[in-house]
Protein 1
Amino acid sequence: MIAGAMTMTVCCFQKGSESRSTLLRAILVALTIGSQFAAAEVQLWETNEVIPTYVVGPPDPNPRFYSGRTYQGARATFYPYPVLDKLTDERQNKSYRLVYLENEYVQLAVMPELGGRIFIAKDKSNDYDFFYRQHVIKPALIGMLGAWISGGVEWNVPHHHRATSFMPVDYTLETRPDGSKTVWIGETEWRHRLKWIIGVTLYPGRSYIEMSARIFNRTPYAHPILFWINPGVHANEKYQVLFPPDVEFAVQHGKPEFAHWPIGAETYAGVDYRGVDLSWWKNHPSPVSFFAWDSQMDFFGGYDHGRQAGVLHYADHHQVPGKKFFEWGNGPEGEMWTKVLTDNDGPYLELMAGAWSDNQPDYSWLQPGEVKTWRHYWYPIRQLGGASNATIDAAVNLTVSNRTARIAFNATGQFRNARASLHAGKTGLFERAINISPREPFVAEVQLPEGVTETDLRLALLNSDGRELVAYQPVARKDSPMPKPVARPRPPGEIQSNEELYLTGLRIEQLYSPSFEPAPYYEEAVRRDAGDIRANTALGILRAKEWRWADAEKHLRAAIDRASANYIRPKDSEADYYLGVVLRAQGRFDEASAAFHRAAWGQAWQSPANLALAQIECLRRNFGLSLELVNRVIAASSVNTKARNLKSAVLRRLGRAEEAEEHAVGTIALDPLDFGALNELALAQRQR
């Protein structure tokens, strides 16, 4: 707004009729007005802070392999990670590195040493910790590898309560031209070799936290993944979970049982919830999880009616469908876990948002070379009373009682001369110009005329230029029939069709089932039909992951023989691609190249096949051909960082260091924690 002040000053000067003192007063007024609208600079700094910590003993030096353990409904594997299960009662003061982000509305602190979690998130307008604030590090044996702490925000990928949530992660800091600042955190997960990063960003003049998430499959195999963000919040008898108004049902882990939402009508998780409002923390006597079922809205959150404050999550529900809460309950078990996990910070509740997943376990596939990118937004709310809808710009709540509508808005930025309106059909019931910001919520009550029902109403907030920031119109509940629970897989011999055998085995793989193995289902399909394409391909991939190359090759060739009978080119070249993977692993590069070239005829497998071919040509020192092949990969997927790093290396080998440097810089922009790209940048600069 300094520019605006300068414009006002120029106008005064051009008139030539004001005295020097009048001109100075005008400048001061302009600067004062400008300062009210100008967004404060985002602050970013690192510091060491001492936090009381209960000591965890050294990890077991002996590796532990999978022995049938179930964790969060999926297969729990330790190796190659060490197990951290030696907890002690010894409390020490320990120094941790914290990275702070702060603007005029919120203050955050990220802790790279303990999983990169957000450790502090405070609404500066009311001093409210909108994520659970721990004042002690007190691990319990809850994590996949043992030690786990509550509080703040935990990142869970590719499994829930990921293995390294109590371990250090990589991080770096970024300042952007728009004034926003970011803490990037991430790692390469050891068990599946998947890379993930999260950019935690604050913008000037905005109260939301932007979380930019990316997951990279740098392996030659497809992997099932999920990505749940797990914030804790302070809970008490006045805390309420805010699922969207279109949610009719909630569901358990693994979807074995459903409950009506928000008023229960059945027994769920062993508790009689008939007539109970499930949205309140106080109404749950024991540990329980609820996943919102099939919401088509983009938000959810939680609200402390005592503090008149809470937090909302906003994300595209097509990419981020998961909305869940978990609590330990307010009974004896909950009290026990509160004492186990904290000294004085009280009970908490987890509000979880799931990307590419709506349940735990619930996974989606990440193909070889694929990169998934998406964003989350979290922001504090106050004086809202609940939430009917939310966007990145604003949140709205509408309640109707005794022919009185309570309307409330929060905004994530400063909007002057915005317009709040309430209509019943085309009839305006309320309209007002308002100034609204994260520090200035808006609340009003409107008397409704006779005959107006709640579903007649539409509440909206518009910017001064007429752009709709948020709106809500109630709809009648559908009273849908309760969804059917998931059925356990039948034994292979009881399944009639090969298609069902294949899909059952694939589901077992996809969900990392601890109770069933996929191979018997594929094997039964092959027993019935030795040339079954899908079952042979699936078996070949399983055997390849086990390094049983001969068996893998046998099944993949059987699939290819069936698919290419009568000299036809198959529509799907998956089996050709994985045959190439198997042959390359055995050093049979000529045969592998032929298989990869066949796979590249199919669009679905062009990128991973061409990348594999480019790597083989590098081994042969055919760098010109390798560059041509890797360019095909990048043309299909410009965010494939493994291919981009290979291109930088090939360009260096061809003596084109300047291009290699430029390309490495572009890769670092996609993944600031890509150490391969950072290395290529240094090598290219040295070569120049």
Note: The first strand starts at residue 43 and ends at 56.
Protein 2
Amino acid sequence: MSSKSKFSAKLKEKRWDIKREVELLKLWEKERIYDFEFREGKPIFSIDTPPPYASGAWHVGAAAHYTQIDMIARYYRMLGYSVYFPFGIDRNGLPVEVQVEKKLGKSAHEIPREEFLRLCSEFLDKVEKELLHIAWRLGLSADLKNYYRTDSPEYRALTQATFIELWKRGLIYEAEQPVIWCPGCKTTLAESEVEYKEQVTYLNYIKFKVKETGDFIIVATTRPELLCTCAAIIFNPEDSRYKNLKGKHAIVPIYDHEVPIIPHPYANPEFGTGLVMLCSFGDQADVRLFRELKLKPKLAINPDGTMNEIAGPYKGLTISEARERIVKDLEKKGYLVKRELIRHRVPVCWRSKDPIEFVPMREFFLKQLEFKEKLKEIIEHIEFYPERAKKMLLDWIESVSIDWPISRRRFYGTEIPIWYCKRCGAPNLPEPGKYYRPWKEDPPFSRCEKCGYTEFVGETRVFDTWMDSSITPLFILRYKRDEKFFKKAFPCSLRPQGYDIIRTWLYYTLLRVYQLTGKPAFKYVRVSGMGLDEKGEAMHKSKGNVVPPLPIVEKYGADALRLWAASEAKLGEDYRFSEAKVRSANLFLTKLWNIARFISMFPRVEDETECKLLPLDMMVLGILNDLIREYHEHFRKFDPFVPANSIRYFTWNFFASHYIEAVKPRAYNTYGIFSEEEQKGAWYTLYKTLEVILKLLAPITPFITDAIWRELFTKESIHKQRLPEPDPRWDTKYKELKDEFMSFNTTIWRYKKQQGLALSSQLNCIVYAPEKLKPLEKDLKAMHRIKALLFTKPPSNAEEIGPGIYIVRET
């Protein structure tokens, strides 16, 4: 064969049409190619997919996060694993309540509970539908048909069952003690739900009179509204300025009650004046010091964030109003010395961003302090990617200082399954297995376990939402519901998540699963960075910088968005969205289609024995081997970044730009200088390389790869194939010629351009090339149409046109 006209493309469409993505989605559903198979002898790879919270649709950052998880699922499926890839929707907790309250313009406490729950559920249903559609359109191979909801009776029953089990084992207790309280959300928070933000605030220098001497001391504070609760003033024992104050008392301005002055190492001599007032409660340190020094707390702040009667004339004011008013009064009475603006780390609620307070509340607590050392031990049995995520978790565990308050005074959450005896007040718990709602249902028992009385009142509080979220691996692996499956699949293979919820979702899951099973929850933990906008800022509705994924998908296709997501940043690093880079990914897919269409012109040779592979072919196949090795190395670390970028570089910059250009004359046998076996060697290598590229890309860009595969290889989906492994026969010395080969091509192309010649023009001169390239002589000569190509030392009159490349013009 020597005429190009004898070849026609089997791939008829000239361009990849992104509309075909939807056709493929429907075809995959029809063929059920992602159905999970539970078979003896086949290894299970299970993924504890983060259930997205149904408070709003995804932005492109979230879409990237979930498509990366899907790439891991697809990779392991093509390795031959039974991939268990469930999908859930997180529907419990405060965010939906806040959304509904905003919509209604009312607090949840002003609406009948049943009605409020119905409105929350309706809101969640709408957002859930959007999330599922986006996940489907992005090509997630998760089980989107049988997704779970964290507010379903089945899920909530398991949350309650785990609570009952831990209650029976003595790991849960109820106590009244200062808890972290969000006045805006009107609920208790866990330590993990507190963030710190830098604020500019006033440090107020206030005079206190020393009772015994009549002298004045100056105390600096950012919380003057808590003067009414001041119970002591402390100074550092090493601070020589105040040693004479030991054992004396100070009179609190405005309120005129006296408090002891006590030496204590907590006081920092470098901050303010070195004197610190202890109030109930300004921060966690106050709580600890009140306990340590056995001080009696007074509580001046109501749960709604207003001052109560202990604040005296400031009763009814908000905290900020009281702060400003008391500063004016202190100044008027001569107690305010000065005010300084300082930058101050303020603890805030991670949801509402309101400053938190410390308010004594009666709550249920789950013991966690006594498990800190054991958790550190089990973490050593889990592989973290990237490794630094492990340190982030260990640092958080080290910082935990109180047991976990697990009860909340909210509504849309899993109810605490307790009924209290009306006579003796004893808590009575039901048997696990059902979903209970004590606030509206009669108990499933008739008599109090303690006194035998028959009347009860149901608990009205709900669990912290992390009590639900922390059992996702147990729920998906059918804990307490299918022991055979649980035994086979536990621990869960992979927990993929963002670093922003290490201290919540990851920590609480490891704690709860260890308490219930005595084992680590996961084999591997994959922690990704945050998806940011083009300026590197987090995407929020309030900022107006949210980029929704569907318009991007409609414009460029899901494959382009997925390829951008894989290519943008290494695992654990934040990644910025860039439409220009999605467009670039789309251009690569167009190039891939063009490559496949070109290759489809030739017959496919599957049997290597039918052909003769030249050194040029062995070079590309050897480089392909290295690409396969690199691909597996990084995908096994759950990071598609290097694979995606390496495939793109190999496919476009080497395979298309150099190998295909070099092999065209042989594939067509344009000049009739190659044997039939050598021509078939070109066809074999073209198809084999394309086959490997498509398989390697399939987890990343599942649509275009399957479309090409079905037309050129087999009718069975590419996603049912096995990923390639390196072929040792391809590891030859020829792959070492790559750089010199590319340099030679670039040099000749540049020279022709300088001479005003078309790249396909005959080069009527003698070209001297490095001897290393001699094995490629036949293909190079045909590729560049060189009249004479020599690998000897060039004569003195030769012109150097590139590194080690010379030319002698014809005279």
Note: The mean pLDDT is 94.
Protein 3
Amino acid sequence: MRYYIILLTALMTIVATADAKTITSSQSSANERLSDYIDPQIGSEGLGRVFIGPSAPFGMVRPGPDCTPSPNSGWLPMPERVDGFAQVHVSGTGGGPKYGNILIQPFSGNLTATKHHAHRLNEEIKPGYYSTTFEESGITTEITTTPRTTAYRISYPSDTPDKPNSLMIDAGFFLGENPVPDSREAQQFVGSEVQVVSDHEIAGYSRIRGGWNNGRAYTVYFHLSSDTPFSQVATWKGDSITNDPYQYDSGEKTGALVSFPPGSDTINVKIGISFISQLKAQRNLISESEGKDFETIHSELLDSWDDMMNRIKLHPSTPADMKRMFYTAFYHTLIMPSDRSGENPLWTDPGVPYYDDFYALWDTYRTSMPLLAIIAPERLCDIVNSLVNIGKRDGYMPDARSGNANGRTQGGSNAEVVIADACVKGIKSIDYEEALKMMLVDATIPPGGNEEAEGRGGLREYISLGYIPHGIPRAGNRTVEYSLCDFAIYQVAHQLGHDELADRYLKQSESWKNLWRDDYEHDGAKGFIMPRDAEGNWLDEIPFGKSKTHKPTFRYTPLTFEGPWYTPWWNMFFYEASSWEYSLSIPHDVDGLIEKCGGPKAFDQRLDTFFSKNYFNVNNEPSFLSPCLYHWIGRPDKTADTIRRIIEENYNDSPTGLPGNDDSGAMSSWLMFNLAGIYPNAGHDYYIIHSPLLRSTTFSVGEGKTFSIVADNLSDTNRHIIAATLNGKPYNLSTLRHSDIISGGELRLKMGPKPSGWGKRMHAN
């Protein structure tokens, strides 16, 4: 009897301990703030170029340090100098800089200079918060933000009474300045204005043009309010500092300098921003931050990020470094585009959303927009409606847009793919008939000399010849990508019942085959997208330069990059990739591609060569889908091995943890999908299933429903799917429909050390 009592007591203790651990784990999970796993420094160095300052999801302002006027996102690592803190930036972009407007800089001293560069003694970078202390002055600047207003808390040292606590407001500063007039991709100064409105307020604007998209002039208005009155003020224009309370716009750079009374060691400054007017900037400041202190604004900002982060939850046992990678990637995906609804200076359509800073749809249509279709369909709806409205008002939907100006096109007119993706996935509250009209504008009306900014360059040739001939910039990838965009038109027309139109564009979506050179062989692979002239001749030799006398040429191969060594990136046959990459970038017709490559066996060998010879480019979007192409020949195990290797070799949670420009979260959302074990084929309603790197991922899909992907027995050894169930029933397909996800449920994957016969078929029919 004593034995049973002891045994029972032991069992009760074990159960109680287990229950306590379960409760503790559950409580820890319930109390966990997922924004704590966001590390804005991941991808901030190297090629990633992400923005490190505080930002609201899709916020209009992104304040942060500007370390010289050179970097795209403003920030550079220490020990680079800090020119000040501007209110508007982009994230993860390549090419020339944009924005960097309305710079402020705290300093100690008299109001006698317009530049106050400083160096950081330290800095703290967290989600929704940035701070640094300057080495020379000991001044600490803290920053947080609302969607349209920046909040600063500036702490001056108390042991320098002989040096006034001062602040510079520079309305003429911007990133990417170049002394050469109209220099390509450089921003150019147009005008600025400042006015001391009261003893604690300053207002004005900065007007800049150009930048990466070579766009028309945009104006950033501001209204600054301090909780401490100014004791002294000055303004400047050009190189002249005066006691005048304002400087009107005469085409010279302007700014203001203010000092605070002795003993005012902590100053709170708020800056409202608008693209409409100074009064609207003031209204944004009042409506979003009046009566709120720095900590309240910061807390509300973190709440907004946690609201988004909580839409995807990982298993509690997920390693911390993996959580940091995942949630930081999620964060980066939600920084841009910028929600400027009600802030459009070009036209007014009440109730219609307006978004800017599409950098660029060529990047984000592949993974970022499909992610929103799952976790934020209401946001995707607004973005699509904005794209259509821009098309109606500006003439063309953007492929890229910034500073309220379309530009630049990189390949296709990719708003079509975003719209098709939303349409086939049933995103509501979009007028798809109106959207189709704008898609057809892209597909039928040449942009008339403005091809770099919008529309389809080479459209006449594409329609008449069935391809774009060499000599027209980006002829190769434009032909390939217009084919995909035509398929997107087919998808929407088909959904709407416009059968004749759908059939026309389905046929036109095969235009990529007109640049497919069947007999060309390279490194064991046969058939490539290659240059062709307007007469239909294949070009083995490409003209070098523009000499009309000597006419030198060079041999073109599937690995050739003819730029930028003699031609700009924008004038190459392929944009940012080789024929090896683009010849595998036919996402709407992979079956046709396999046939062109010589069948499944030859395609398998071609993919093996592509990855083993490093022809695959991890840091560029045309190769995003390529690892999943093994699925089309019944080898999901090879997809899994390839993706795992790519992630392990190229992604991590360090400042250099992104392998390429993040491009508004494109690189980050690619990582998110593949960690979870599914991947979208944009413009289609399915996701490719492959081996996850996460034990479980649960998506909140609206109406209180969730969808979970669970990998049982997942380990470094058990990395292959050997069986699967969907909502408890055996599931042998290697794709998942969007409707399966948003209906809620569970995809459970049984993992093992070796591939089985699972997943050889992608679709039921």
Note: The longest strand covers residues 187-198.
